Amino acid sequence: MNLARLSPTALNLFLDCPRCFWLEKNKKIKRPRGIFPSLPGGMDLVIKRYFDRYRIKDEMPPEVKGELPGKLFSNLKLLEKWRTWLHTDLNHEDKGINATLSGALDDCLIEDGFYIPLDYKTRGYELRDDPTKYYQTQLDSYCLILESSGFKTKGFAYLLYYWPLEVFDNGIVNLKCTL
Q1: For strand 173-178 and strand 99-102, is the pairing parallel, antiparallel, or unpaired?
Q2: What is the DSSP code (8-state) at residue 153?
Q3: Residue 18 falls within a domain, yes or no?
Q4: Which one, out of 26, 58, 75, 170, has a CA that is 20 to 30 A from the CA of 51?
Q5: Does the pLDDT value for residue 77 go beyond 90?
Q6: Rounded CA separation 172/36 (Å)
Q7: What is the pLDDT of residues 7-55, one digit of tens each?
Q8: Rounded to whole angstroms, how far apart are CA atoms 123 and 144?
Q9: pLDDT band at 96; cut points 50, 70, 90
């Protein structure tokens, strides 16, 4: 019997609406979804490439230098695999419930042999409240799948938020970030 494949998004759907989760997993009826803007996904890719440039130089980007612990995970080939949800080998199998939890990491830090997930988020304005309540399941899932895959974690992860401040000539956008 194949294990059901779950993601942090699926777990959030279950927490939000168990009926919607059941319908999606058992009857293949997906919850209606509104229009999803492509800008956040595009920004996510651009931020990953930006961090990868620093990773290759074994440095941290200047805006997070001294703010984040350790170093960026140096194995870009493996990180690229971890970034692809369908191809990642990071997972947690629970045969008791016949399910596998997988997730796609944006990035990972290494400190004293521990792995710390790092997730990038973009938004249209500065944070007004604590975003942890929206992303705790996702971050917990990343730690669990790393641990289950043989990588020690510190039991926490970081969210790095970017938002636009202003647009300059030639369309250059100045972004602010906060951890």
Answers
A1: unpaired
A2: B
A3: no
A4: 170
A5: yes
A6: 24
A7: 888 888 899 889 999 988 889 989 887 777 778 888 999 999 999 999 9
A8: 26
A9: confident
Confidence of residue 58 (pLDDT cuts 50, 70, 90): very high
E strands present in 40-127: 71-72, 91-94, 99-102, 107-111, 114-122
The answer to whether residue 45 is domain-embedded is yes
Quote the number of domains for the chain: 1
> Is residue 95 situated within a structural domain?
yes
pTM, two decimals, is 0.87
List residues bridging with 174 in a β-sheet: 166
Instruction: For residue 72, tell me if it sits in a domain.
Output: yes
Beta bridge partner(s), residue 173: 167
Cα 87 off chain centre by: 15
- Where do the DSSP E strands lie in 14-157? 71-72, 91-94, 99-102, 107-111, 114-122
Find the domain containing 66 and state its range.
38-178
pLDDT in tens, 97-117: 888 999 999 999 999 999 999
Torsion, Cα of 161, 79, 102, 32 (10° steps): 50
Residues in the chain: 179
